Amino acid sequence: PILTAPTVAACDGIAGVITQPELAILPTGGLQRINVQVQRPDGSPWAGVTPIIVVHAPSGDLYPGVPPTESSGLTAASLNIEDLRAGEIVNYEVVVAAEACTGYAIGQFAGGL
Hints:
single chain
């Protein structure tokens, strides 16, 4: 018998990742929602992809749970940063890896009163 390697659906290009915090200035004790949109390299929505979000909070890195993207390529994660003080800047990163394709985005928000 002739053995053939299984075919792999390889991604051609870089996934588009767009992110935006719901609140640019997060009130003390407030709940932040980080919105993410994922697109295939051709610009079409990418459903079923689970991004990884790392939030660089003052007390250390947080990894909020993120559900897979919907048919529109959209998903979001919510988190609370207890020790965020007014004026502190929080940076976060979003990484997507699926079908041998990757994408990356960064965002930030600040602590408010």
